[in-house]
Amino acid sequence: MMENEETPQRPAASDAATEAEAVRRSRRAFIGWGLAGLAGLGGWGWLVSRPQEGGIPGPLRRVLEFNENVSGAYFKETRLAPEFARSRATTPRVNGKYGLEDELDPAAWRLRVQSIDGQAREFTLADVQALPKIEMVTELKCIEGWSVIVHWAGARMADFLSHYQLPAAVPYLLLQTPNEKYYVGLDLKSALHPQTLLCYEMNGRRLTPAHGAPLRLVTPLKYGIKHLKRLGSIAFTTERPKDFWAERGYDWDSGH
Question: Membrane-crossing residues (predicted)?
């Protein structure tokens, strides 16, 4: 080829054919994605039109019930959440203030425990602190997808129930903040798990009001929505109790 000779151009017909094929494929792809989008919208429309069960469409409730069954079957007293070095512990974000709206008076705070016959007993923070102090460094997992490693300290729920001879033959517990605006349901197996704590310290310091002072629940095999802050009462019940986030579309068990 000569130094100054141009490369011959392709025939115009070839260009036209190539362009036509590209347009055809683009249209086909657009139509395909459009149909998929319409199918998705149709499916979503069908889903949200189903009768509500517990605050969400019935088909979604079936999915959550399946998750609960899997989580329940996987749960064992001998299955422990992994523990980490204390050096890895950090302070979790303040995530949610439900039940913490009222001013905290530590001196007036009491933990009220109600048996199935309606009889109630009250305990001070000193009563809980009189029990063996358990420390653990576990991962706090939020159902939103983030997690953080925290150093917790407190008394085992199992030790609390045993030492004060509280009823432990009832299958469920309802735990609530003092103003009863936040509440979680817990099955007895989860309550008696060796890593379920009535926690009064976090990362070597007493809990702050924003993190649940003076006493909160910590149960590391459950998502953070079960880790009730500012625990005010525990009630034993034979029927599965209400749960704040289960009423808003999450699964009742909330295990992982």
Answer: 30-47
Residues 231 and 149 in one domain: yes
d(CA 255, CA 134): 22
* Distances, alpha carbon 144 to alpha carbons 15, 105, 147, 227, in Å: 52, 31, 9, 14
CB 235 within 8 A of CB 114: yes
Tokens of 185: 């349901």
Query: What is the token pair recorded at 189?
Result: 């197996």
Structural domain range at position 33: 20-49
Q: Closest Cα to residue 67, out of 246, 240, 252?
A: 252
Q: Which amino acid is at 123?
A: F
Claim to verify: residue 234 and residue 212 sit in the same structural domain: yes
Q: Are 140 and 134 in contact (CB under 8 A)?
A: no
Q: Record the pTM.
A: 0.73
Quick one: 112 and 186 in the same domain? yes
